Amino acid sequence: MSEKVLLDYGSGGRASQRLVSELFLGQLGNDELNRLNDAAELQVSGRIAMSTDSFTVDPIFFPGGDIGSLAVHGTINDVAMMGAIPRYMTCGYIIEEGFAMDDLERIVTSMGKAAKKAGVSVVSGDTKVVPKGAVDKIFINTTGVGDIIVDPAPAGDRARPGDAILLSGTMGDHGLAILGTREGLEFEAAVQSDSAGLNHLLVKLVQELPEVHVLRDPTRGGLATTMNEIAGSSNVCCELNETDIPVRPEVSGGCSFLGLDPLYLANEGKFLCILPEEHAEKALEIMRADELGRDACRVGTVTDTNPGKVVMVTQLGGKRLLNMLEGEQLPRIC
Q1: What is the CATH class of 164-321?
Q2: What does the pLDDT look like over 242-266, one tens digit per residue?
Q3: In sequence order, which residues have a C-beta less than 8 Å from that of residue 204 and are 6 or more positions away?
Q4: Domain 7-148: CATH superfamily, name plus number
Q5: What is the value of pTM for the model shown?
Q6: Which of 113, 112, 270 is nearest to 195 (CA)?
Q7: What tens digit of pLDDT does each residue of 113-149 get?
Q8: Rounded Cα–Cα distance for residues 67 and 73 (Å)
Q9: Contact at 8 Å (CB) between 10 and 16?
Q10: Which secondary structure element, helix H or strand E, spans residue 237, and what is its range?
Q11: DSSP-assigned letters across all residues of 236-275
């Protein structure tokens, strides 16, 4: 193959076949994908969860990950938030003519490693190459499918007054890592994306505690926006304690310097868990036993005082509304 991605690689002819067989099947291949049918034959049982997403992150390589691993993590996490075991993925690549083949190989290799670690098979895919300037480097579209293993499944409209609100770790890491890399900023301490596959931890959590009401990953719009979505869907008030929300010192310092609020920055390896009060300590024990949940903590309580609102109890003991993000704080974050 050439050093650059050519339009020929999206033609469907011999060049396309070489790209698929030498790169994609080499890194993502499995019994089903290797058949190269027009669609995949899948084995699923009962209720399934399915999610689709598109990844346009800029830059495509960043501290803690790249667009390839991010595409896998983002997809399987969305499926797992439904109390499901992710089983299969599809991926479609839209690649700019002239894109470096070494970079494409690096991205696909990263996807393969992330999928293998998650125990997910990439069973179908598509590649399009567009003229230079028609797309910025590379965009990736994915779909994920998994078996729901609890009934009822966790959902954004199931939060109830009295529930505990738990958080698996620190806020704002991914958003600040992307911004810092994009703008060439140097912080006093290195800031890395938290991009990670959460499915193994989430499956263990719902298997041991099927009483979990809500699981959500606070990606675009961050914690504040996600909490507002849950409060609105469940018609409850989510009351958060500012002093309990974990933010790394380097992220807090970077946000202060840039005038950003870490509660509105995207996260790609953290999740919210809302469940009955009596199960909160057990949930924290399960989360903290996993590397991806070692900083898990309780950050609030669901109430019925201001339905549809998110209330922040400040460090001084006062209260203020925590609104949903207005506009786009940081575009192309995932």
Answers
A1: alpha beta
A2: 999 999 999 999 999 899 999 999 9
A3: 286, 290
A4: PurM-like, N-terminal domain (3.30.1330.10)
A5: 0.94
A6: 270
A7: 999 999 999 999 999 999 999 999 999 999 999 999 9
A8: 10
A9: yes
A10: strand 237-241
A11: -EEEEEGGGS---HHHHHHHHHHT--GGGS--SS--EEEE
